[in-house]
Amino acid sequence: MTTQQTPLDAPPRHTGEPGLPLASGRDTLRAAGAILPIVAQGVIARRRHVVALAGKADLDGRGVRVLQDLSTRYGHGPVRLRLPGRRAALVLDADDVRRILDETPEPFAPDTWEKRKALGQFQPHGVLVSHGEARAERRRFNEAVLDTGHPLHRNAAVMARAVAQEAGVLGAEMDRTGELDWDAFVRAWWRVVRRVVLGDGARDDHDLTDELTRLRNAANWSFLLPRRRARRERFRARVREHLERAEPGSLAEMIARTPADPEVDPVDQVPQWLFAYDPAGAVALRALAALVAHPAELTRAREEIGDRDLALPQDLPRLRATVLESVRLWPTTPLLLRETTRPVRWDGGELDARTAMIIPTWYLHRDGRTRADANRFDPQQWLDGAAQEDPALVPFSAGPGRCPGRELVLFTTSSFLAHLLRGRELELAAPVIDPQAPLPAGVDPFAVRLRVRPTG
Question: How far apart are the first and last CA of the chain?
Answer without folding.
Answer: 38
